[in-house]
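User: My collaborator sent over this chain with a note saying "see what the structure looks like." That's all I know about it. Can you take a look?
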Amino acid sequence: MLNNQSKDIQTQFALSNELASSLFAPIFHPSVSDPTRRQCFSILSQSQIQLGAYQFLVDQINLMIASYGASDFPTTSYLLGHFNSTDFSAFLQLLSTLTPPSVEEYQALIQRVFDQSENYRIAALLSEARLKSITEGRNSAIEFISANSKIQLKTRPISAAEYNPLDVYNDRSKAIGPMFYIDKFDMEVGGLPPGRQVIIAAYSSHLKTTFAINMLYNNAVYLGYASSFYSLEMSSMEIYELLYILHAQHPKFAKNNVSIDRQKWRTRSLSQYELDFFTKEVIPDFRSSGGSKIYVRDLLDFDDGFSFASFKSDLMALDDLSPQGIQMFCVDYIQLAARSSGSVQSTGSLIQAVSNWVQDTKKLAQSFKRKRIVSVILSQISRDAYESAKSDKDHTYDITVASGSSDVEKSADVIASIWYGKTEREQSIALMSLLKCRQGATFSNERVLALPSINYIGNFRQEVSVSDDFIASLISGS
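Assistant: Without extra context I'll predict from the sequence alone. Here is the result:
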């Protein structure tokens, strides 16, 4: 039976409202099957909720499991009998009135309660720190925060008047944030500080994925940023292959005069010399120069579908796995993510689902694990919008059409589009437009080099001669 901690438990449940009680509904409710109860309890046990009331109940149930044996889970009647004390009866009554959520809903609920418990815990921490600041001084408050949270204040906080922005401005060795690696874009956007959201819109087969691969590749190899790529259309193996083929075109390999492209790779028609070069030069070099900073996930990595809750959970796990943490993520593409929720039944509901996804990823980018992260979202232009732009001589998209809805347009910090029609394919170019930029000017139809056969889209490589570079030979048509 419960001991004198029950009063404290009731107080904490009251402070955190009925949402907290829902955490235990699938575990105590008699209508839930034992496998589901066990699964939900496993999810709850592994959560990072830090209110004593929850942890006390979880510990008590774990003790019962230990006494039952690893293969058994306490029955509903046993749990109700164990916790049925006078002080705890109101909580049990509330549980009986709740409808138990599904496992997927339960995972989302865990995150909501975690966020709420964190807010409660941080509010209590700051309240205590304010009191210490008044009674014991500022340094005592700083030491208290450092000792009771993950926030370590290694130096005293400074005011805006003490900060010198020129220290960072003049240190050009420090990247502002991930870059597009297309000169005109980087000139206007100026890098992507953590918390920014980018929408890249294009019609089907208009190089959305190719652009994203180049962006993640360049930022990993040249700037050292770690990223995760969520591919909902291609397998992770295919994306990894494209990255290695792209790395084979690195200027450092120009002297080898080797041409490795997607067609040769697909048809397994590399010569022995090309295969040796790929095996002994490209693979080990990419693994050491940037490959270890790119993580690719596909639908097979998500047993219960690609919901926002499962995406967020996976991203958090990758952030723990990466030695430097994840600094940028990309979803390819947002309409597939929205449809995977299972609630899309019409065009209107798809637009709403897309809006929800974009807004949720923006919030995630701005508050991810008490830090910020860059969000890159690929969006597929509708056929009607494509046909409209096709008939326009400039092939430009309206910003609302490119973003999919006014809500998405408002959420994004940067919106860009790609046009890759018949004429452009013949000329090995693509037309890229900057439709929205909070920090700079917009522009239309910037010509960029587009070589999908080697997964390249970006700046023209005019500094490399035809005789010693594979990309240059492709440009010249030789």
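A starting point for your reply to your collaborator: The longest helix spans residues 103-136.
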